[in-house]
């Protein structure tokens, strides 16, 4: 936890305000509960005392005195302080209280506690204003919530639980809210670092040409500056594409046949490692044709850059998903780096060795495009080389699979139905290279 971070300060501020509110609320709740319990006990005791006081005035008090379950202790105490009648629960007990209400205030409440810590809540009712009038005591042992601090413990535990929960939720919510900002800060820092290299190289070449005009070939300087400018332009273009992918403005989706799209991208490749395509028919998705073409092109360029002799592309449908797999026979990607390669500006040593240029954004852009189309892009295990798998929501049903084979720079021509009849399984379309 960074004490200076917005997340930490927001959590501390929220927790502090909530703590004050919980303390005030907890004290008020404790007093309210205690007051309510006391009122209930004294009200029941008052009713019992008034009942037997009226019975005494009418001379109709039984012996022993029957009691209710909530007020078990009832005693009649004469003017000399002697218990003359009581309930079974109070039999043999000394007077519950020494309180003797005056003639003008014959009903009073009292909580009497003995030396052993036992407290009784009672009502004292003077039967009549006469000097020798007996007093009726009706009461019960003090409830445990009033006699102990259990109520405070329960309220405190609940308050702590609420405080911890709200603090955690605040920490999580603020962190979640700020996470995109933190990613943008990291992105800006990384972008600045990546842009600094070509800018520094360009500046060094120009300064060298300015300081030593007789020793520097202007043509070499211009060519080097152009190469640095190309790299800057590539990085800026990729950054703009990333921004558009994360922005609200998206191209209108269209129905795209993935097999045809992959075929077209392979057909535009220049000389280099050959690419074999195995594409199913009617594997269709909704999305941006330009973006998906960029995604496939990135995967093909990456695979050819690392392949030894061949690249294989398959287009199929699996479980309601369109699947495009691009596999090369190169060194592959170590399992611990299979997520890292999709981060922006991340290039493994193998990639830098094979191609010192590039923006380092191709795979990051590809994954963003996949996510923008509600799909996934990941690296799966492969016997040889690396296997990039793109999964997109499928539209309609896919037909039977067919094998198409192309070489870079060559044109795919639909063969006649009577060509290779023995090799064409039912439902397959065959293509010829060249």
UniProtKB/TrEMBL annotation:
Database matches in Pfam families: HATPase_c, HisKA
Enzyme Commission number(s): 2.7.13.3
Lineage top rank: taxon: Bacteria
Top-level EC class: transferase
GO MF terms held by the record: phosphorelay sensor kinase activity
Keywords: Kinase, Membrane, Phosphoprotein, Transferase, Transmembrane, Transmembrane helix, Two-component regulatory system
Keyword Transcription attributed: no
InterPro entries, sorted: HATPase_C_sf, HATPase_dom, His_kinase_dom, HisK_dim/P_dom, HisK_dim/P_sf, Sig_transdc_His_kin-like_C, TCS_sensor_his_kinase
Location within or outside the cell: Cell membrane
Domain Histidine kinase: 190-396
A GO cellular-component term linked to this record: plasma membrane
SMART domains membership: HATPase_c, HisKA
Catalytic activity reported: ATP + protein L-histidine = ADP + protein N-phospho-L-histidine
PANTHER family xref list: SENSOR HISTIDINE KINASE TRCS (PTHR45436:SF5), SENSOR HISTIDINE KINASE YKOH (PTHR45436)
Protein name (record): histidine kinase
Organism of derivation: Microbispora bryophytorum
Lineage: Bacteria, Bacillati, Actinomycetota, Actinomycetes, Streptosporangiales
